[in-house]
Structure formats: C-alpha cells, structure tokens
Amino acid sequence: MNLLHKALLSIHLLYYCEYTMRLGVVTASTASLIFVVLIIALAAVAASYAGHIGDITLPEINPQAGAFLLLGFGLLASLVVMYRAHV
C-alpha cells in the first residue's frame, strides 16, 4: 500500500469517525483525536518516503515539508470534524 492509498484511507476513516460521532458512538473530541493520531502516523510514513520521492520528482522541496503539510491538513480536518459536531 503506497502513501496515496494510506492518505485516501485516512480520509475514509475521517468520514467514518464523523459518522460514528453523529450516531453517538464516540464524542467529537474522541473522533478528532483518532484522526490526529492517524495523520501523525501518516506524516511519519511521509517523512520516511519524502527523501526518496523528493529525489525523483521534486528535489528542490525540503523532505520534511510533505510530512508537515500532511500533519497540518490532518489537524485542520480534525477541527472541521469538531466544528461540524457542534453545529
């Protein structure tokens, strides 16, 4: 499973967390915490592959930039989940 598939899986898990949150199975903070942990794990995977991917496609980009970008999107997505839970 490559990094793109893992990122798509994390998006799918975000919607699953939101769905279970709306059913009342988990709270909004628990759902966002699960997703943040998942994004941190994906960021670690991205950091390990970033040097290899960067050498092939984008050598001018810092290898850790993709990992931090992925982590930032994960935190933003968790805030969206918490906001949608309270609206």
What's the overall geometry?
elongated
Radius of gyration, in Å, reads 14 Å
* Biggest sheet descriptor: none
How helical, in percent, are the residues? over 70%
Provide the structure class: mainly alpha
Number of helices: 3
Calculate the mean pLDDT score and round it. 66
Which stretches are poorly predicted, pLDDT < 50 over at least 5 residues? none
Tell me what you see in this structure:
With 87 residues, this protein is mostly helical. It has one domain (3-86). Helix content is 83%, strand content 0%. Helix 1 (3-23) runs antiparallel to helix 2 and helix 1 packs parallel to helix 3. The model has no long low-confidence stretch (mean pLDDT 66).
Give the arrangement of secondary structure elements.
Blueprint: H1 3-23, H2 28-56, H3 65-86
Helix pairs in contact: 1-2, 1-3, 2-3
Keywords: Membrane, Transmembrane, Transmembrane helix
Transmembrane segments: 21-45, 65-83
Keywords for this structure?
87 residues; mainly alpha
What is the gist of this entry?
This protein has 87 residues and is mainly alpha-helical. It has helices at residues 3-23, 28-56, 65-86. Helix 1 runs antiparallel to helix 2 and helix 1 runs parallel beside helix 3.
